Amino acid sequence: MKPFDLSGKTALVTGASSGLGAHFARCLGAAGATVVLAARRADRLQSLQADLAKGKVAARSVDLDVQSGESIAQALDAAGPLDIVVNNAGISIVKPALEMPEADWDAVVDTNLRGAWLVAQAAAKRWVADGRPGSIVNIGSILGLRTIGQVAPYNASKAGLIHLTKALAMEWARYRIRVNAICPGYIETEMNSAFWQTPGGQKLIERIPQRRIGKPEELDGALLLLASDAGSFMTGSVVTVDGGHTVSSL
Ligand code: NAD
Question: Is 13 helix (H, G, I), strand (E, B) or coil?
């Protein structure tokens, strides 16, 4: 078997309607997996699904709002048996901590941490009931390891997600369920590409040891390692992919 081969596996990606989630779905599909695109924007999922079909990738779409346990249960029932779950859905709200309303805290933490937890638990319950192994890849952030200003709930949610990864890895190893996390540094997507050309963006890049931001495809190695049997002895691992940003000089 080729390393990173996902033939015969089915992978669900949350927040697959844009950015890294859409990229992860393409990457897993290119490695041979059937992909289940899960998000709220059905029109975007349909067009990604059609695009994947052109590349002979089998894909289907399910409606999913990770803030709702009911939506998660319905999405996982509709998805059918899975082998891999990528907890990618995430949001950030930028405000000084003193001015952060309770509702903004709830939205960020409910999406990034509670949502990932509920999706992981729903997938694991099904795997345990079916006696099936599984692999969960949580998309953390370097902001779960270090902090920046104005995104306190985001920082806290991603730190929580990293610790959750380790807690679930420990509890679920006995069921052959692996739980790992990727902590990306700054990665260029359509949402943030204009920022990197601004003076603020350029100043930030100067603090990254590799003096550049990453491309989505530079996360592929970590994703395929953790998702596939190539990472069969890895659980509770946190893989940082950041051009050295978190080891930059203090
Ligand atoms: P993005 O905004 O393009 O993607 C986030 C996706 O999550 C969107 O498709 C959005 O619709 C979906 N989503 C949000 N709330 C949801 C909900 N309640 N239910 C279902 N889907 C929901 O941003 P992105 O940059 O692609 O981020 C993807 C993940 O990567 C996030 O978890 C983010 O924190 C993480 N991340 C991104 C970077 C980066 O530089 N781009 C760096 C580190 C971590």
Answer: strand
Domain, as residue range, for 212: 10-240
Q: For a substitution probing ligand 1, which of 91, 108, 183, 195 has the most ligand atoms within 8 Å of its CB? A: 91
Rounded to two decimals, the pTM is 0.98
The one-digit pLDDT tens for each residue of the chain (250 residues) are 678 999 999 999 999 999 999 999 999 999 999 999 999 999 999 999 999 999 999 999 999 999 999 999 999 999 999 999 999 999 999 999 999 999 999 999 999 999 999 999 999 999 999 999 999 999 999 999 999 999 999 999 999 999 999 999 999 999 999 999 999 999 999 889 999 999 999 999 999 999 999 999 999 999 999 999 999 999 999 999 999 999 999 8
Query: Does the residue 5 lie in any domain?
Result: no
What is the rounded distance in angstroms from the CA atom of residue 21 to the CA atom of residue 29?
Answer: 12
Structure tokens at 160: 């929580």
18 vs 112: CA distance, rounded Å: 16
Domain count, the chain: 1
CA of 92 to the centre of ligand 1 (A): 8
Domain contains 59: yes
User: Is 242 close to ligand 1, i.e. is its CB under 6 Å away?
Assistant: no
Name the residue type at position 227. A
Please indicate whether residue 67, judged by its CB atom, sits closer than 6 Å to ligand 1.
yes
Residue 4 covered by a domain = no
